[in-house]
Specification:
three-stranded antiparallel β-sheet, single chain, alpha+beta, 9 helices, 214 residues
């Protein structure tokens, strides 16, 4: 199948978990049984400016196990859609995503619900914070305008990224509409942190197609 390479890549990534953040490539299924599938892959690490690569193996356990080998293809198709679909809980459990969302919410609140940021700071007896802001930005009003412009830019950028991510999901990865909508929502919230994930899957798929044409 055209999407076999990215399915294998996703299964390897899942089996390794978050503990492995190094770059992996050349993922191949070496064996499969009713209970599990075994894969080989190349893991590259970079330390002190030098990179080293090594061939490794990992195992993906089927839950529940396959009943017969005839179930293999339908299960792999299901795994393709499941593993390539973003989990919205990662927007909260992954700290970088959570930080971006909190900042956007804060900027959005200031943009639409705070009429006078300087007055709010003074009313909360945050004179020291106000003085620091004035030293850095000239005045609190300058910071307020910067926050508004940053928020609007971020929203527009995230929506454009989300459209691109949805395109990759639907047209390149051939995911279902539900998965495409989840990618759109996830990228709209966290931006490039989520866009980079769907791009990684898409690049694996496209590189596999190129290698087959050679």
């Amino acid at each position: 199948n055209d999407d076999h390479a990215v399915s294998v890549f996703a299964m390897v990534k899942f089996s390794l978990g978050k503990s492995k953040s190094h770059k992996i490539s050349n993922c191949k299924m070496t064996s499969i049984s009713l209970e599990e599938a075994t894969f080989s892959y190349v893991e590259c690490t970079s330390t002190s400016g030098t990179g080293t690569c090594a061939m490794k193996n990992t195992t993906f356990v089927f839950h529940p196990p396959l009943e017969t080998m005839k179930d293999m293809r339908p299960r792999l198709v299901d795994l393709h859609h499941d593993l390539l679909t973003p989990k919205l809980k990662s927007l909260v459990t992954e700290i970088p995503c959570a930080i971006i969302i909190c900042i956007l919410l804060l900027f959005g609140y200031i943009t639409y619900f705070v009429d006078d940021l300087e007055q709010v700071i003074l009313s909360k007896n945050l004179k020291l914070a106000g003085s620091c802001i004035s030293m850095i930005f000239g005045c609190i009003q300058s910071l307020e305008k910067l926050i508004e412009k940053t928020f609007i830019f971020a929203v527009v950028a995230h929506i454009l990224e989300a459209c691109y991510g949805a395109f990759l999901s639907h047209k390149v990865l051939k995911l279902k509409m539900k998965s495409t909508l989840l990618w759109f929502l996830a990228i709209s919230c966290a931006g490039y942190l989520m866009t980079s994930k769907v791009m990684e899957f898409s690049n694996v798929h496209l590189e596999s197609k190129k290698s087959k044409k050679k």
